[in-house]
Amino acid sequence: MSRILVTGGTGFVGARTVAALLAAGHDVRIFDLSPQSYTAPLAPLDIVAGDITDAAAVTRAAQGCDGIVHLAGLMTVDCARDPIRGATVNLIGSLNVLQAAAPRRLPVAYLSTAGVFGPADAVHPQPSTIYGTTKLAVEGVARSFHLDHGVPSLGLRPYIIYGPGISSGIAAGPSIALAASVRREPATIHFSGRVGFVHVDDVARLLAAAMSVSLDNATVLTVAGDTAGMDDFVQELSRQSGWNGVSIDGPPLRIPAELTSDPVPTAFGPQPVTTIAEGIARSLSDLKALTHER
Q1: Predicted confidence band at 269 (pLDDT cuts at 50, 70, 90)?
Q2: Taking Cα atoms as reference points, which of 24, 47, 27 lies closest to residue 36?
Q3: CA–CA dist 280, 133 (Å, integer)
Q4: Which SS3 state, helix, strand or coil, does residue 163 take?
Q5: Using CA atoms, how far apart are residues 110 and 99, in angstroms rounded to an integer?
Q6: Residue 104 carries which DSSP code?
Q7: Tell me, what's the pLDDT at 1?
C-alpha cells in the first residue's frame, strides 16, 4: 500500500481527491493549514496541521510517503488582493513540495489552471492574472525539478471546477449556485460567457490515477471539461433543481472561451468527461444526501 501526502487535503478538490485515493487503495496523509474544522468526517486519516510556506514542515510531512498530491494554494481573487502572499503560497509553497520530493524522487501531481492562458490565445500560455502567472511559474519549476533532480510530475490545467463542496474565489460561482439551489436560496455567479465546466470528481480521479501509475516526465495537461455558456449551466440547473433563483452578473473571465483538452495518457485508464447535465445531477444528489444527513 502506498502512502500519499495530500497538501490542502481538506479543501474543495482535496476532500474528493482523498476519497479517490482511498478508493484506489492508497493510504493518505493530509497536510493542511487549518484542518480542525474538517477533522470529524476525516478523523480516521493521518492529518497534519502546517503551512505550505514552511519548508521544514512540508519536508516532515512527506517523510514516509510514496507520492504527493499538491493542492494547497490561493485562488484568483486572493492573489489579486495580495500578490506577494499569492506568490509566496503558490510558488514558494510548490517549491517546498518539490524540494521535499527530490531526495527520493517522489512523484508529484499538482493543480495548475486554465488561467495560464490569456483571453486571446488558447495555445500559448500568456496569463493575465497574478494567479495564472504563479501557476505558470509552478509548471516551470516542476520541469526544472524533473531535469535537475529526477522528480516526475503531472500538472493539471482545469478550467472551472464545480461540484458539491465549499469552493472559493470567483470560480466558485457554479458550486455556490448548486448548493443554493438545494437550499432554495438566491445566488449570483460573478462571471459570464463560455467556459469549460470540469466536475470535481474528474479532477480527483485524474490526480489519484497519477499516484497509481509510473510518472516518468514533467507533464502538464489542459482539462477543459464540457464547454458551454454560463447561461446554459444556469438553465440546466434550474431545470433539474426546480429553482430559478440563480443569476449571472459579471464579465467573461480572462481565459479563452474555447480550450481543447490534452489527451490523457492511456496508462491512466478511462477518464471520461462528465457532461454538465451529468455533473449537475450528481452534485445535486450529493448535496441533498448531505442535507438529509444533517
Answers
A1: very high
A2: 47
A3: 30
A4: coil
A5: 14
A6: G
A7: 66
Mean pLDDT in residue range 267-291: 94
Do 194 and 257 form a contact (C-beta atoms < 8 A)?
yes
SS (H, E, C) 1-68: CCEEEEECCCCHHHHHHHHHHHHCCCEEEEEECCCHHHCCCCCCCEEEECCCCCHHHHHHHHCCCCEE
Rounded-to-integer distance, Cα 50 and Cα 31, Å: 6
Cell 495548475, located at residue? 112
Smallest Cα–Cα separation from 10: which of 60, 71, 66, 67?
71
Give the residue from 177, 176, 173, 166 showing the smallest Cα distance to 190: 173
Q: How far apart are CA 258 and CA 178, in angstroms?
A: 23
CB 199 within 8 A of CB 275: no
Alpha carbon distances (Å) from 51 to 35, 37, 106, 119: 11, 16, 20, 33
Model pLDDT for residues 171-227, shown as the tens digit of each residue: 899 999 999 999 999 999 999 999 999 999 999 999 999 999 999 999 999 999 999
The strand ranges marked E within the chain are 3-7, 27-32, 46-49, 67-70, 108-111, 153-158, 160-162, 187-189, 194-199, 218-223, 226-229, 246-248
Q: Which residue has the cell 500578490?
A: 83
pLDDT in tens, 2-36: 999 999 999 999 999 999 999 999 999 999 998 76
Q: How far is the C-alpha of 281 from the C-alpha of 236, rounded, in Å?
A: 10
Radius of gyration, alpha carbons of the chain = 18
